Amino acid sequence: PPGLPFTPTPMSAMLVWALLNGLITGAIGAGIVLLRRQHRLSRQHAVFLAELREELDDREALKRRLAELEERLDFTERLLTKQGPAPPLPPPER
What is the mean pLDDT of residues 32-39? Predict the structure, then answer.
């Protein structure tokens, strides 16, 4: 065809086909690798989130338990304050 800087031959057409085929195959292969990596990372992310939620639940349970213990301590301190000083202990028997 006029206007082309070279005359296409079957060999050059085959070379272009091979280059395009390689590019497409490489792009598909890279896409597959990236999708597998993304899938693996999303599974790891899900596991990490589950562990994080468990840790947060444990922390909340500890906070509730600490608050309960603080209330018990306050109650005990109030009882002891109302009772006044304790009577002295008897001397030990020999």
Answer: 95
